[in-house]
Amino acid sequence: MAMLTDEMLLESYQMATLLDLEREFIALLLAEIHRRNLISDPTVLH
């Protein structure tokens, strides 16, 4: 995940949720988003 830019990480999360990929994968992306403190408004992520 360290190789992903912040923008790529957020886009990956959005696409993963849109495609309804496995929950474990989405959870990994979301954990990294939180670790990087990328979202201050939790309603942005669904």
UniProtKB/TrEMBL annotation:
SUPFAM superfamilies: Sporulation inhibitor Sda (SSF100985)
Gene3D superfamilies named among the record's database cross-references: Sporulation inhibitor A
Classification via Pfam families: Sda (PF08970)
InterPro entries: Sda (IPR015064), Sda_sf (IPR036916)
Name of this chain's protein: Sporulation histidine kinase inhibitor Sda
